[in-house]
Structure formats: C-alpha cells, structure tokens
Amino acid sequence: QVQLVESGGGLVQTGGSLRLSCAASGSISNLNTMGWYRQAPGKSRELVATVSSIRFTSGGSTSYADSVKGRFTISRDNTKKTVWLQMNSLQPEDTAVYYCNYRDLRSESWGQGTQVTVSS
C-alpha cells in the first residue's frame, strides 16, 4: 500500500500562483503514474495532470487537462518520492479540493486532499 500526503493548498487571488506537493511512502513500484485530480463543489472529480515514471531516476511523460495546459506544470523526483504541481495564472474556476493519486499495475491510492481557493 502507498500512502500520500499533500501540502501547499491555500487562498490566492486571481492570477496568482501556488505549488502543491505530494509525498509518497510505502510500497512504491518503479513503474507507476502519479497525478493530481480536483473536485469542485457539486462537480465530479476530474483529472488535472499526470506524470509517469519511465526510469527510476528520471521524471516521466506528462499529460494535462486542456483547461490547465500552459498554466500548470507537474513534475516529480523519484528519489524523493515526491510529485509537485506548480499552478500559475490561477483563475476562480480552479477553486477545488486537489487530490494526489498514485497508480501502478496492482494498486491505486489517494491523498486526503488539499483545498485551493482562488478569489476574484
């Protein structure tokens, strides 16, 4: 089982930036995908960005939701077992609880979520 602990959420004005962190621990496979999802009030949870591991010591390939392309950047450090989400040019519609996700061939884990609020 993999445990995920998120940090870095908060309140920011429109156009501001935040950086989310997710630290993983436990039985981490060398081949996995980590990512960020978000859920706004009254809406379904949606994918924000993912990054897969290709080699143990490097970052992997990334994918983004169209709504965040060019504004958000996902990155990871496999040696530190950490993934980050740098969020720039934040908009009120980015307000949501952001969840870290881990998936490998055998398991999936979720973090507890961190609130991001963007004021207009």
In brief:
The chain is mostly beta strands and 120 residues long. Helices cover 0% and strands 54% of the residues.
Which outline best applies? globular
The number of E-state strands comes to 11
Query: Which bin fits the share of residues in helices?
Result: under 10%
Kindly report how far apart the N and C termini lie.
Answer: 40 Å
Q: Overall pLDDT, averaged?
A: 92
Order of helices and strands: EEEEEEEEEEE
Any overview of this molecule?
The structure is a single chain. It is built from no helices and eleven strands. It has strands at residues 2-7, 10-13, 18-26, 33-39, 46-52, 62-64, 72-77, 82-87, 96-103, 108-110, 114-119. The strands form two sheets. Strands 2, 4, 5, 6, 9, 10 and 11 form a seven-stranded mixed β-sheet that branches. It has a four-stranded antiparallel β-sheet with strand order 1-3-8-7, with no helix packed on it.
